[in-house]
Amino acid sequence: MVEAVRDAGVVVTGAGGGIGAALARRFATEGARVVVNDLDAAKAGSVAAEIGGIAVPGDASAVVDAARDALGGTVDVYCANAGVAFEDAGAGTALDERAWALSWDVNVMAHVRAAHALLPGWLERGAGRFVSTVSAAGLLTMIGAPSYAVTKHGALAFAEWLSLTYRHRGVKVHAICPQGVRTDMLAATGSAGDLVLQPTAIEPEDVADALFRGIEDDRFLILPHPEVAEFHQARAAAPDRWLSGMNHIQRKWEAAR
Q: Is the pTM higher than 0.90?
């Protein structure tokens, strides 16, 4: 058991399946009281029933008040896990602006709104934990998915800002940055995901395991795929060489379509 989460009031957004459901199950196993949030009320209810949690379906951007009520007044841990991804089969910037707007709203602004609602209570108590499901795309990038890559960079930047601004006041922040995970979202990345992510894809439970190791070690950056650290270092040390390598993958993807 991880003492940091025993009896904690936990909210997991996008928890009807995939990484979110795995996180909800793991928090429940560790003795937390878990609110399961998802746009799909049936899926949220199913996972909540399985783990003895509380289903609070609806938009992740507006779940904090209802979750707080469901947990008896206090949210100790908030997992900003809900996300959207789109494959752009065109020139890379041709995605419909509605897809860009939705990506920005779900992948970034939902995190901002949740933090805005949670921070006053956390700062008053001197304790709180914000878990952001980002993606390796937030550290690196992703071919064929411009709105996903860009907004995941934004999600990581916001998590970094939260950590550097409030860590001395008791707020702990974790950014989870996996590569491929066997979920419906991986399927949504289409042929680009098949090329780049599928070969090393892991299970959602592996992501939950990585998060709990990070909680025990009090680490900000959670890398379920350890090789992402090497890719990130290479990107920073030699950006042109790294971009050339990514462009090689881009051309390989274009040739295969």
A: yes
